[in-house]
Design brief:
Helix content: over 70%
Order of helices and strands: HHHHHH
Strand content: under 5%
Radius of gyration: 19 Å
Largest sheet: none
Number of strands: 0
Length: about 130
């Protein structure tokens, strides 16, 4: 409810400052960051509803991995925004912006490695626990 309230009270400013002006990389990045979480949540809800409605024999593992992947992807635009901010504040220092992007993408890389190693371990483990 709080997220919906935030979207409603800031919509007029968003229309004035983002939608009615020339599109730039920063404005597109703002829209991606602002709506990617909402789209991720709606997508996961839709996938879950479809799988449960169709009574598909689907393990929770598939839903869990889909959710993990969608959550991991959310880190990249935030890293890009941090890099753009560092670029602007440092007087167009591209090396610093690249370093900030690499450091801000750390959670993406760590979670990606963790989720792929977990998937590999799940695949290789004995289903009978031996």
């Amino acid at each position: 409810a709080l997220l919906a309230y935030d979207y409603v009270i800031t919509l007029d400013d968003e229309i004035r400052y983002i939608w009615m002006r020339k599109k730039t990389g920063a404005s597109i990045l703002f829209l991606i960051i602002r709506y990617m979480g909402l789209m991720t949540w709606c997508g996961l809800e839709a996938i879950t509803y479809i799988l449960l409605t169709l009574s598909m024999a689907c393990s929770c593992t598939l839903l869990d991995k889909t959710q993990a992947l969608m959550e991991i992807i959310l880190y990249l635009p935030i890293g890009a925004f941090a890099a753009l901010r560092a670029l602007a504040l440092s007087g167009m220092n591209w090396q610093l912006a690249a370093l900030v992007f690499i450091l801000a993408s750390g959670p993406f890389a760590i979670n990606l490695v963790r989720s792929t190693s977990t998937a590999r371990d799940d695949h290789l483990s004995d289903p009978h626990g031996r």
